[in-house]
């Protein structure tokens, strides 16, 4: 009996160790198109995959706690990649790499191909939304479910871009060097987190902010980010296409929105219901970076959504 009990204990220990190993995030660099892209990953690739696409100006660090929570509570494979010049990924100059959303999306698509990921759900925030919807446009059959957080494909939630004669729309039509210079000055003046004189209105936290500052102040990155911001206007032009595609797809949709976001406002969340009436929409008492400000809340909603639609997600593999 003692031997049998010992055997059960060993089996339980091995199972626990295996689960812990599977649920622990691991990081690395994947070579893609001559670039080294940093990524974070956890879970068994045989399980349904969720691809997390980060926003601006952060990186995959914004998803760490949510990813860890998901794999700790259910069988799911999660992965997040830093775009070129973001996070720990390579930052080629804007003369060596064309910083457009089309190019970012192609780079992410190539990353997924190299990693052997062909069917997945998407979690997209901010810049991740136009990157992700380009992936969806290129291969809608690859996407099992769509999750959006504080990122738009409607002008409803984008007040600063609603006026066709406003500064943003005019800049996207004809590049304004004054806008580029103002953005560059802001980046150069970013302050390292410290006890006095530092503000964190979006509650991103000092770790994420420190990484962001280190990444964006690398040589040539300011120019790269200005190129990308100028290209953002191409996203607005594709909103009608993406809305029509969403109406056609009929996949499960989850929309989470930090209501204290001053840039992408809550009407943008409800606008998704026009194209995806099946969507679950939840307004959170949080900020633009809800996955950092309220990771437990986000993980609970995402986890419940994945469980509820697990049969569909498993069929998609």
Describe this structure as you would to a colleague.
Strands 1-2-4-3-5-6-7-8 form an 8-stranded mixed sheet, sandwiched between helices. Residues 3-20 have low confidence and may be disordered. The chain is built from 13 helices and 8 strands. It has 317 residues and is of the alpha/beta class. It has helices at residues 2-23, 64-73, 101-114, 128-138, 167-173, 177-188, 206-216, 221-231, 233-249, 267-275, 290-293, 295-308, 310-315, and strands spanning 26-32, 35-42, 49-53, 77-81, 120-125, 143-149, 253-258, 280-284. Strand 1 and strand 2 form a beta hairpin.
Q: Which superfamily, in CATH terms, is the homologous superfamily?
A: Alpha/Beta hydrolase fold, catalytic domain
Briefly note the CATH topology name: Rossmann fold
Largest sheet: spatial strand order: 1-2-4-3-5-6-7-8
Beta-strand content bin: 15-25%
Shape: globular
Helix content: 40-55%
Name the features:
8-stranded mixed beta sheet, 13 helices, 317 residues, alpha/beta, Rossmann fold
Brief digest:
The longest helix has 22 residues, at 2-23. By secondary structure, the chain is an alpha/beta fold. The chain starts with a helix and ends with a helix.
Task: Give the secondary structure arrangement, pairings included.
Layout: H1 2-23, E1 26-32, E2 35-42, E3 49-53, H2 64-73, E4 77-81, H3 101-114, E5 120-125, H4 128-138, E6 143-149, H5 167-173, H6 177-188, H7 206-216, H8 221-231, H9 233-249, E7 253-258, H10 267-275, E8 280-284, H11 290-293, H12 295-308, H13 310-315
Parallel strand pairs: 3-4, 3-5, 5-6, 6-7, 7-8
Antiparallel strand pairs: 1-2, 2-4
Helix pairs in contact: 1-2, 2-12, 3-4
